[in-house]
Amino acid sequence: MGYVFPAPPHPSLAVKGSTDRFPVRRIFCVGRNYAAHAREMGKDPDREPPFFFTKPADAVADAPCTVPYPPETSNLHYEIELIVALGKDAFKVAEADTSQLIWGYAVGLDLTRRDLQQVAKDMGRPWDWGKAFDLSAPCGPVVPVAETGEITSGEIWLDVNGERRQTGDIADLIWSVPEMLSMISHSMHLRAGDLIMTGTPAGVGAVRSGDVLTGSVDGLDPIEVTIGNTE
Ligand code: MN
């Protein structure tokens, strides 16, 4: 069997300390997972159950990189996030059994066309055009969990042009990684290669062409992403 045209390359991320790459299957993202960020988006963090959205696997890009300023927005926002990279399949897994699914961690950005997302919210439409555009998920290398240990606390931060804009602590996630993995797995089969973007702390804001974003999570190397010219 062949393909009717050459199959595209499989989306993947660099792996720290290896020439092998992490094959990306899907990207799951959680909305409003730090209380202070939920409040800045006008929501009550105590009352809402978690909700998820997705980005296409080929939205990833290896940071450091330059991401062109995307079309049809004048309000592109950064969101620094801890990313959990799965190495095993799972279905209806208990929270206590989720550790074994984790292959490693990365730092990444959930780049967001906030103006298009707001229109979608106002009109009760899907978020895809605000969230799932080309190169909307630049990520640093995946670091094996054997090297980091399980990440359950530690500072998460983002600077724009050297000025601190976002700070939080992984311990302050409203929904923990085990809770999220268990919840998603009760709705569909999780698969090896899936990435979970675990939400962003307070301080989101707009960027312009030429801005340099730097961010990290304790235990992982900082990533750097430059916003390029309008595509
Ligand atoms: Mn996000």
List keywords for this structure.
231 residues, alpha+beta, Fumarylacetoacetate hydrolase, domain 2, six-stranded mixed sheet, five-stranded mixed sheet, 5 helices, 18 strands, binds manganese (II) ion
Characterization of this structure:
With about 230 residues, this protein is α+β, with helices and mostly antiparallel strands. It has one domain: Fumarylacetoacetate hydrolase, domain 2 (Alpha-Beta Complex). It is about 15% helix and about 35% strand. The protein has helices spanning about 35-40, 115-125, 130, 145-150, 175-185, and strands at about 10-15, 20-25, 25-30, 50-55, 60, 65-70, 75-80, 80-85, 100-110, 110-115, 135-140, 145, 155-160, 165-170, 195, 205, 210-215, 225-230. The chain has a six-stranded mixed β-sheet. A hairpin with a 6-residue loop joins strand 1 and strand 2 (about 20-25). The model has no long low-confidence stretch (mean pLDDT about 95). The structure holds manganese (II) ion. Manganese (II) ion (MN) binds near residues 110, 199 and 200.
Condensed summary:
The protein is α+β, with helices and mostly antiparallel strands and 231 residues long.
Q: Beta-strand percentage?
A: 25-35%
Whole-Å distance between the termini?
A: 37 Å
Q: Numbering strands along the chain, what is their spatial order in the largest sheet? A: 4-3-15-8-9-12
- By secondary-structure content and strand pairing, the structural class works out as alpha+beta
Mean pLDDT: 96
Q: Measured on Cα atoms, how large is the radius of gyration?
A: 17 Å
Helix content: 10-25%
Would you give the CATH topology? Fumarylacetoacetate hydrolase, domain 2
Uncertain parts: none
Q: Total domains, how many?
A: 1
Based on the coordinates given, report the CATH architecture: Alpha-Beta Complex
Count of extended strands: 18
Bound molecules: manganese (II) ion
